[in-house]
Specification:
CATH class of one domain: Mainly Alpha
Structural class: mainly alpha
Number of helices: 7
Shape: elongated
Amino acid sequence: MSRTPDAVDRIIEQWRRERPDLPLQAMALLGRLQRASHLLGPMLGREFERFGLSAGEFDVLATLRRSGAPFVLSPTALYATLMISSGTMTHRLKLLEQRGLVERLPNPEDSRSLLVRLSDSGHALIDEAVGAHTANEEQLLAGMDATDRAALEQGLRALLAQWEPE
């Protein structure tokens, strides 16, 4: 199947011309991953903005929602899951609490800490937003058939297995 060259193809072709001795397959693959990530952020972000959320706020609400009833986690569990700093988590939680999307509750197991619970309005918002988000993701991948999707998922899973700690 013939395809139109993309930006990465042009970069690789320049390197082939200038440095034919270099192995360039990894550069091409990782360049496409970087480019895809760069392009993907705004395409996902536009959908979150329709619900008045940033990507980070969506992540917090979605993490609480998928944790299951009673939709309560410690801030430590939240930031560990989201792989962000405690300072970033504190800022996000403050904004979400001000908007009435989460509530902070005393931790019955540790009087020095609080728990974070998804409020009823936060629950309603994230349920609506996650439905739109998954529809958006499907639309973004609509140009790939099931075989290509499966191959990409398998390849990315193998790559992450090399990079992520166990």
